[in-house]
Design a protein that fits this description.
This protein is about 60% helix and about 0% strand. It contains twelve helices and two strands. β1 and β2 form a beta hairpin.
């Protein structure tokens, strides 16, 4: 068998394994571990899911490196460049397949926004398919010269576009859509909201005078990414007053107006930094003393 046919066979085999893995993950929920919401987790989801965050960096780096190599090939080609590109693209396809399978495990029970999760999943799957096509087209270019060169370069450009879109949606799932702009000047946040065609995030503390404004800034910078419209860890949203008063999955009221001691939110921000229930969780920037005092005074004043 010629080298091009060998490459095609390898890619088709990888894609077949990938489809089988996706189907296995989708079907395993029926035999999985029960969840609090009455559904099931695929076996091993809690263990395998977090590895998605590790593996996803490999296709990002490999495809970005391949794009840089192709720019070099455009202007200053040299011996061995196409072989290096072939290896880089092949590894990118393999790691993209692995990342997409682990991503399905990661998506289970993550309290993510359904819409953004769907966009991230679909663009991730499209990225895997298009990157495999890019690898196949590159193998043809290696074997038959420039006849398929622009088709391959177009596929590589589509791969990079899908990579950027999938990465953007993944970042929005993990950190919230306002992660990069939450500390930007107000006019910048307003412009972005208008450009995206949606209003800025609501904040139930923003109407409480000076103390409420201070707490609103705390919620915006420290809480909204994990407890806002895009992600609701613990089934708790801090941008809706009903949820703020009721609390999340624990059933403990997050805010009891006039009584900070009975407010679950205030108790959790006072926990030691390594406590399992501390908010914000370990690894994220804790509230400053002035911010804790602002939350205390706001709740004590009745959380207006």
């Amino acid at each position: 068998m010629n080298p091009i046919g060998t490459h095609r066979l390898r890619v088709m085999s990888l894609l077949l394994v990938w489809v089988m893995c996706l189907g296995a993950v989708a079907d395993s929920g029926a035999a999985g571990v029960p969840t609090g919401g009455g559904g099931t987790h695929p076996p091993g989801a809690a263990f395998l899911g977090p590895f998605h965050m590790v593996v996803l960096h490999f296709p990002i780096g490999l495809f970005s490196f391949a794009a840089l190599l192709e720019i070099v090939a455009w202007f200053r080609p040299f011996d061995g460049l196409r072989r290096t590109l072939s290896v880089t693209l092949g590894l990118g396809v393999i790691t993209a397949i692995l990342a997409s399978v682990l991503g399905l495990y990661r998506s289970v029970g993550g309290d993510y926004s359904t819409e953004i999760l769907r966009l991230h999943r679909n663009t991730g799957i499209a990225l895997t398919v298009v990157s495999a096509l890019t690898f196949l087209l590159h193998s043809v270019v290696r074997g038959q010269g420039d006849r398929w060169l622009w088709g391959y370069r177009g596929a590589l450009g589509a791969t990079m576009t899908l990579l950027l879109v999938a990465s953007h949606h993944g970042g929005s799932l993990t950190h919230g859509q306002g992660f990069l702009t939450q500390n930007a000047p107000g006019f910048v946040r307003g412009w972005i909201s208008q450009w995206e065609g949606k209003p800025s995030h609501s904040n139930p503390a923003s109407g409480g005078g000076a103390s409420g404004a201070a707490v609103a800034r705390v919620f915006e910078s420290k809480c909204l990414a994990c407890h806002g419209p895009e992600k609701q860890k613990g089934k708790f949203r801090i941008d809706q007053r009903d949820s703020l008063l009721k609390g999340g999955a624990s059933g403990v009221p997050a805010v009891v107006p006039g009584d900070p001691a009975k407010s679950g939110l205030f108790r959790m921000i006072l926990l030691p930094s390594m406590h399992d229930d501390v908010m914000p969780p370990a690894g994220k920037e804790p509230l400053a003393d002035a911010e804790i005092l602002a939350v205390f005074r706001w709740i004590q004043a009745g959380a207006p």
